[in-house]
Structures are given as structure tokens and as C-alpha cells.
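User: Can you model how 6-O-phosphono-beta-D-fructofuranose sits in this protein?
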Amino acid sequence: MKGTYMKRIAINTGGGDAPGLNAVIRAIVLSASNLGWEVVGIREGYNGLLAPNDYPNGGLMPLHKSTVRGITHLGGTILGTTNKGNPLEYPVQKADGSWDTVDRSDDLIRAFEREGIDALIAIGGDGSLGIANALAEKGLKVVGVPKTIDNDLEGTTVTFGFDSAVSFATESLDRLHSTAEAHQRIMVTEVMGRYAGWIALHAGIAGAADAILIPEIPYDINKVANKIFRRETAGRKYTLVVVAEGAFPAGGDVVEENRGPGRSPQLGGIGKIVSTQLAEITGKESRHVVLGHLLRGGSPTSFDRLLSLRFGAAAVRALKEGVSGVMVALDPPTVQHVPLSEATSRMKSVPLDCDTMLTARELGISFGD
Ligand code: F6P
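Assistant: Here's the modeled complex, given as C-alpha cells:
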């Protein structure tokens, strides 16, 4: 395929951060610089283009090889990120003080033209890549890179950030194991993941949890308690339960709070509820731990570093080949690309018949069903 020459490309990081963002940025900058392209980073999602005057040196950060030296192992993102400035639902305050949202995607397209940016590499989860898809439909050259600790994006076997989150949660479970056993307690660990149970499932199995509650399987708390009673009878006086933040009881609701216009709800709190209920039903002592943002911070695992570097290089390769409107995706053993529209069309839930689920069931892990 004939190569496409770009003069200037932009990178942005949007939504919640995930370990590996800086590694993707480094791979993009090195690959693109080696082609002779100029790279700029948009600060804090799209805010750097929509509100450049809010930033000390303007909303764009020049990215050179020297800028990205030594950042592969660093958590966070050197560009900053936000889950507030969605250009499709940009929050604006009305005269009466209340808030509304407006579509600023045309402003954004004009800002790309004004800055002489030929193409965008958008690193994000479902929300950010949905925005990227909308921009692609308006004619901007865009390649997406799948980021999220939640692993809930269609079209890729795995997103970067997921392995780091699972590794940290697993290590936390190892630590909780010994203290739970020493005190003969129930220990409930709540993990992030939004409306998908990937982190809970993978960490729960790897960390030898006895029960795992995920959004894909509405639970019955009495069935979880029965698992605890069976363990007691077998002489196992402690129990580890992992609860995905999006888990909910059969006939009940997800614990979430509305965060206002243009923002997704904030999940969290189910771990405490499960812990309290299990203590009441079993008469045992129970404690709960919320791992929360600890799952997002810190260094990426070696798996995530390599995946991020591969994704970054593949995104530049796609642009070089003249491909746009796609997301790079892991399809072992290679990195392919899939249409952004397909990747963002629906959330990737845990399939109940997947090998990992079967494994958990065969190990005797309870899902409260
Ligand atoms: O999507 C990543 C994620 O960490 C979710 O697992 C979690 O529900 C959400 O972001 C938390 O967002 P915030 O950083 O706004 O609290």
C-alpha cells in the first residue's frame, strides 16, 4: 500500500487514566518522528483545543523524542486527562445557573484545521473512542487506541491497563488472604470495572477468592452465605469475596451516583453492602476494602508496557498506510485494526460460557447464583 505522508499529528488521552498511557505516547512519538512527522499532544482530553487559553503555554504540548524519554514505566499521562470535557456533550452554564450540554464537535474540527493537524491518535475507552468515531465521521483522520482497566471494549482481545489492574488486585487479595485467615473473617474486596466483571473475575480467580460477584450475574446474597457455611463445615473459617463495583442483587440495582450533564455515573459502595449483609446472615465478622483508584495508579506491568508500545507503533503504522476511522486491536498474535464504529457499538461483557468462567465454576467459586 502506498504510504501516506503526514506533516503534523496530534495525540490525546481521554477518560480515566490507565497504566500504559505514557508507553503508548512514547511509541507514537518515536515511530512518527522516525517518519519525519511532527507530533503534538492535546492537553486534558480535547480541552487543550477547545479552551487553549486555560493552559499556561496553550493547549498543545510539542512532543519530541526527548520529551518521551524514560516514560514507558510511568503511570498517569504526561498530557493529563479528563472525563469532563466531552465535546459532543460539552457542559455549559445557563443564565439561571443550571447546567446544560452542547455539541462542540464542529468547533473541534475547526481547531484541528486551525492548528494544521493532519490526523489524530485518540487513546481512550468507550467514551473517548465514541468521540473519536464522531470526529472520523466528520472527516478527520483518526486512529484509536483501546485503553481501559475495565477491559470492556469490543474488537480487541484485551485493552491496555487491564493486566496492571488485575495484577494489583491479585496482590491485594494475597495480602487480604492471610489477615482474613488469621482472624477467621469474611473479607470483601470491591474492585472497579464499571458495568463489566472482567477485573473481578480475573483477579478473583488468580487471587483464590471463594466468591466473585459480577454485573453479568445478578447475585443472591443467601447463596453467597451458603458458600461461607459450606466452608465453615469443611473447617475453612475465613472467606474471600470479590465484588465488582457494578455487581447488583437479582431484582436490585447497581449502586451509582449521577454526576451531572455530560458525565457518566459514579459507581461504588456495593462492597460495604455485601460485607454488612454477609455478617448479618452468617454471624461472622466481616470487613470490606475498596481498591478503587489504586487499580489505576502506578507502573504498568511488563505485559501492559509491551502491549501499549505495540498499540502506539501500530497506530502510526495505520496512519502511514492511509487507514483511518479504526481502532488498533490485539488479535493474537498480531495487532490488527477494527472499525471504530464496531469497537464502540456495545460494551464487552464477560461471556458466561467463556473458558475463564468455566474454570471458575469448576474450581468451586460461587457467583451467588
Ligand atoms: O473506566 C475506568 C474507571 O476506573 C472505572 O473502573 C471506574 O468506575 C471509573 O473509571 C471511575 O472514574 P473516576 O476516576 O471519575 O472516579
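A couple of observations from the model: Residues 143 and 315 are 6 Å apart (CA to CA). Residues 16, 83, 125, 148-150, 192-194, 245, 266-267, 296 surround 6-O-phosphono-beta-D-fructofuranose (CB under 6 Å).
User: Helpful, thanks.
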